[in-house]
Amino acid sequence: MVQKLKKKRGTPAQSPVILKQDKDLVLPKLDLTLDTDSENETTSTKSDSDSSLKTVNGFIVTNNKKVSSKPKKSAFTKINNSENKVSQSKNSLASEFTEETPQLADSDSNTDISSLGDSIQTTDFEDQNINSKMSQIDLKREEPFEGVYNLEAKFLKKFGVTKEDLGIEPVLDFQTWVDNRKNLPQIEPAYDSDSSTESQENTIGNVPIEWYAEYDHIGYSRDGEKISKPKVDDELDKFLKDADDPAALIKIRDELNQKDIRLTDEEIGIIQRIQQGEFPDATFDPYEDSVEWFTSKTMVTPLTGAPEPKSRFIPSKWEHKMVMRIVRSIRNGKIYKKPEPKERENIYDIWSSDLSDKNLQNDLKRIPPPKAKLPEHNESYHPPAEYLPTEEEKKKWLQMSRDDRPTNFLPKDFETLRHVPAYKNLFPETFQRSLDLYLAPRYQRTKLNIDPESLIPKLPDPKELRPFPTTKSVCYSGHTDYVRCLSVDPTGVWLLTGSEDNSVRLFEISTGFCLKVWTFEDPVNAVSWNPNKDICMFAASSGEKLVLIVPKQVADLNSLVLTETLLKNGLATRNVQTVLNWDKPTTKEQEEDIYLTIDHSSAINQLIWHRKGDYLATLCRNNNSVHIHQISKQTTQKPFSKPNGLVQRVMFHSVKPWFLVATQKYVRIYDLMRQNLVRTLNPGAKWISSIDIHPQGDNIIVGTYDKKVCWFDLDLSSMPYKTIRYHEYAVRQVCFSKAYPLFASCSDDGTIMVFHNTVYSDLMQNPLIVPVKILSGHDISDSLGVLDVTFHPTKPWLFSCGADKQVYLWT
Amino acid sequence: MGKIKKAGKEGAAAKYINRNRAIKKLQISLPNFRRLCILKGIYPVEPKNRKKINKGSSAPTTFYYVKDIKYLMHEPLLDKLRQHKIFKRKLRRAVRKSEWTKAKILKDNKPTYNLDHLIIERYPTFVDALRDLDDAISLISLFSIMPSSKKAGNGVISQCKKLYYEFLHYIIQTNSLSKAFLSIKGIYYQATIRGQKITWIAPYEFSQKIPRDVDFRVMWSFLEFYRNLLGFVNFKLYKDEKLTYPPTINVELENIGASLGSLTITSVGRVELLNNLLKLDDQQITPTLPEKNDAQKISKLSDLAKKISAIASEQDSALDPNSETPEQSEQVDYANNDENDDSETIKGNNLFKNFTFYLSREVPRYSLEFVIRSAGGKVCWDSYFNGESQPNVTEIDKRINIYVVDRPVASKRISSTKKTLVQPQFIYDCINANVILSFNDYAVGKKLPPHLSPFVEYKEGDYVPKQQLAIEEYAKNLGFKGEIETLEANVENNETSTESTEIKSKKGSKAKKPENDNDSGSDYDTELDEMSADESESEAESDKGSDYDSELEDLMVNLDDDLDNSYESELKTEFEGEQYSTSTDSKKRKASTKPSKNSQVNKEEEERKKLAMTVMSKKNRKLYARMQRGIENRKKHADMLNDRRIEAEKVSAKSLKQKSKKK
């Protein structure tokens, strides 16, 4: 009953648990609940007397049916319990009130149970039988709490108590036990009453009966004897039998025992009821009247005539105490109603006040978020036809991964607005945008918004920098292979060209007439006029041989005499022990105006005269050796026993007694007098092809195989003052003009660049380098273009020779 | 000897902090850190050299400025977040223990916070806030059409809707909408407020599909901030415009379904002034009458005030053009509205000033109403007239000038009115071109001309769609914003509408040039001139008086190579009351003669350029090459588009021929 009561009350029963903890606030509520409870109880005391009778009856009925339920039992016992404890509980009420609230609820119920107990007593007198049974159950279940029932006796022993001590297992005398037993319904030992007790003859269990098909028995009995297979009727017999037997329809076959079983009427009834969808049990009444344990109906006549106890009419002292406590705490301000949170005016003019006094984060410059890209024509719902993608483009777009796509949508023409659907990617795109806003690092990029033409430097007009060679004017032909080298005589009348066809040709510059041809055994790699105007002589290299030739046809008498005396004197004063052998020419060679031959052990790649015409430097790249020959003394020196790196070019300084050696990556300048290194220039190139020095001697240009032309100012750093990259292929030769502020570079791309260069005597002013002309006319053969280029000594003319076997004069 | 320097304590390494360290330092969870970053507007930074900062590793790490994180440490919001964490823990505990009263008390004392200080911190000036409004309005407009789910509870969606509509109403009030574009993603709008161009996208109002892979926490954080921001911005905008904020919601209209129109805007000034005056009366009368003279004065004053109010109300009713109906005269608010319109003619765009549009059922009313009303037009549909409910309004209302219909054939009832019927694109194209375009092109059932983005700025060498040229030409022929006085006449001779407007344009004073022209560059104008060369030539002949001036201008033009300068001069010519095309045209002619003479010179120039390029630095040369590539690509793209256009035209011509043959 207590349990039921608890359940019925539901939440109010639980609320005291919380109330206790937050006394300050919600105690008034507690007061209320208490009130309501007591009211309910008073009503129930009056009303329940009737119902309690019913419950008792109900219990007996169910007990006979063996469907006793636990809660009912417990309820009963509780009632009896309370019967005994009424006085006790009344006494303990006061103390329990102050204790924990769950007990508080219990005590509540106890109070009203007292009256219930009275009512039950009355019923006891009416039915003795019931009483005896109840007492029996009471004895059994007079428990302090239910859990003890589950405890093992052993376990209890541990604590030194027996179940009897606890009052769980009361000691019964034999007579009462027998009496009780008599009252119990007798069990009838009938086999067919229950299916579980039905004898199973065959003990094979749940195995397919086919397994015994081959044997003459169908299984084993309980005693282990074989059960022989009964005689099996064939179908005809079966049929005839069935036809004869009126009960054939209510027989079923028991396969296990190979028997026919006749169904009883009860069983048939069950089957029929199941078929009809009814309850199998005929006696089961689904619409049985529910047992009203606690009814609201009040009885007209009370069960007891006892007067109302006094306590009913006296206000509870404890409740009063409780209420007063709350009243006190309200007066003291411990309990108060929280004021409603004031609605803050959450929107106002936030930008109204002056900014200067606000503490703003000015330390870090925040970059405002970049604006989203504005839509273009292709995003229109009805774009011009040209913005629609073709089928191919659509396919390509679909195949691309999402990140690679140039646009995140496919342009589509909907024609009218009513056809436009919701854009399904709008949410993801907005999400992406917000991700970008807080996840993407921001940085400011300075976007160049300049006219590309403004990048091109403004150069002085080339017209103002005239004269410089502009057009092809004379073509010197005759060579049958690459023309490797050329040299102009210091007077500017004659031109020498050396070629891979083993010949050196002498041309008259103005007419292009070939005056003489010298033919050698090996290709001519270098040819060079003596720069001294008084001496008429040139040097040429053919393979390993260096020859000195005095062309008698072009030499005037004075210079011829001078040259011959120079050579003769040299022969006289010649030191025999030189590095290389100075050979006298053979008679045949003498006919060819060859005066001297010097045999180098390796092929000569370059010849260069000192400006005074006495010294001649040769370079053999194969064995990496540099020789300096002195014509007047007919001696040879080897300035470097082991040059530092592969020597590409050598050069005498135009003013100072310096000697320039260009190795693969560096240009080194040596002082020949002091015998030391003056400077090292680093053009930053991978492979130097050529160098030349300005006539004033302060500037050097270096051409490289990696397409660069570097201008060095010797007064400045060892790095190039200017690097010009224009040629598409390797630069073969660079040269300065001696008479004009010009220099030229030629390259394998078949072009010659002509630059104007003004070198100022003022040291503070940087030299002015202006490209003035690109000369193109040479053809490219075997990926070789212009091989050599040189300026006329007095005029702004330029000579060039190339792999196309041509030699041109540009004026 | 100095102290040994430890790595990572000085220089760049001390300037940055990676995310994990930042979180550790702030002692918050990653989601909370994200939220804080979103609300504070803190973004990661890309250090110049990752290795120097990340202990030699170049692994992809997110870096923040140490200073930013330090600011976060002092952030009051951080404390609030922590409080919230504790609150959540306590609540969870109480609920788990079924301590409902405790839970309730906890819930009542839930820690709250506001973002006001963040807004003022991030946007110290109002203009700053306006500049960053694009994303805010886009997101709010998106959320305003979201289905309100359990997650989006607490009226967030409805608040978004309210804020968005408030903003739109401000634009309607000030007529500051400059561009509108119907894209496949949604409708783009651009409004110019305080010189700031605010562009946002509003989705088509269909139910949006909400994808699963979206982290809603991020979106909510952004939305939370934006909601606050837009609230303050709206307040400020309304206040500066002397309108009451928040605008009241007309429940009747809302029930009809006029979502945008259900807000009622009231201007503060007038109503309050009257109220104040009346209050003054009461205050001065109620004190126990001090002296007779004073009392007389006061009574006079009160009389005056009453008179003023009476006059004001009279004016209101007089100003109200719709005062025929008695309902309107009662509503002072609308009268005020109209007055505002009159005073703001100079201020904003009043393209549709004299038009009343009837919006058919199938058109997107939510957008069209906004666009039309912000261009000064009036909008109506069944029992709704321009922001007020008028139950007697139907399709055949006499005030309606134009019907906006988007179906192949208009309903009989509408077509029987014999008034202009246009498709919705007309409205948007007109707004973008800033002229009333020909109704014929947009007639119902007709194939629409392509709809172009007004946001594209044409540079030299860009492809310009044909439609753009056509619109520009049309606008130029109109001369100025054609003021069409009587629409009925226009409708009668639809074919000659352009001519009539032209005549009017000559009659009228030279109005200001449409804004759109200002936006597109002068190169573009010159191209236009080519198109209309014939006309302008004839015009040039007609007014010889100004030849001298034009010559002068030409000289100026020749002197200044800069395009901008030439544009300025064009403006000048315009100012002088001359057809601006003449000067440019003559310039063109001169330019065309030049190359024939100087082909030789050009060649030389070419060579000189080539030579000059040899002495360019490597960096410049590469840059130049890159730029050239860009120019080439642009040109290629333009050529491709042009080719496609020609092809498409051919195809359409063919199909037309075939059709005619079949007939």
From TrEMBL, chain A:
CDD domains assigned: WD40
Region described as Disordered: spans on this chain: 1-20, 32-129, 361-388
MF terms in GO: ribonucleoprotein complex binding
Protein name: Ribosome biogenesis protein ERB1
Domain BOP1 N-terminal: 212-469
Each WD repeat, start to end: 476-517, 786-811
Ranges annotated as biased composition (Basic residues): 1-10
Pfam families, A to Z: BOP1NT, WD40
Subunit field text: Component of the NOP7 complex, composed of ERB1, NOP7 and YTM1. Within the NOP7 complex ERB1 appears to interact directly with NOP7 and YTM1. The NOP7 complex also associates with the 66S pre-ribosome.
Bias-annotated ranges (Polar residues): 77-129
Record Gene3D superfamilies: YVTN repeat-like/Quinoprotein amine dehydrogenase
From TrEMBL, chain B:
Gene Ontology MF annotations: ribonucleoprotein complex binding; RNA binding
Gene3D superfamilies: BRCT domain
Subcellular location: Nucleus, Nucleolus; Nucleus, Nucleoplasm
Signal peptide region: none
Keywords linked to the UniProt accession: Nucleus, Ribosome biogenesis, rRNA processing
Polar residues composition bias: residue spans: 314-331
Residue ranges, compositional bias (Low complexity): 491-500
GO biological process, one term: maturation of LSU-rRNA from tricistronic rRNA transcript (SSU-rRNA, 5.8S rRNA, LSU-rRNA)
A GO CC annotation given for this chain: nucleoplasm
Chain residue ranges for the region called Disordered: 314-345, 491-663
Bias kind Acidic residues: ranges: 517-540, 548-567
Main location: nucleus
Domain BRCT: 347-444
Chain intervals with Basic and acidic residues compositional bias: 629-652
Role summary: Component of the NOP7 complex, which is required for maturation of the 25S and 5.8S ribosomal RNAs and formation of the 60S ribosome.
Recorded family membership: Belongs to the pescadillo family.
Assembly with partners or alone: Component of the NOP7 complex, composed of ERB1, NOP7 and YTM1. Within the NOP7 complex ERB1 appears to interact directly with NOP7 and YTM1. The NOP7 complex also associates with the 66S pre-ribosome.
Designated name of the protein: Pescadillo homolog
Biological source species: Smittium simulii
Lineage, broadest ranks: Eukaryota, Fungi, Fungi incertae sedis, Zoopagomycota, Kickxellomycotina
GN (gene name): NOP7
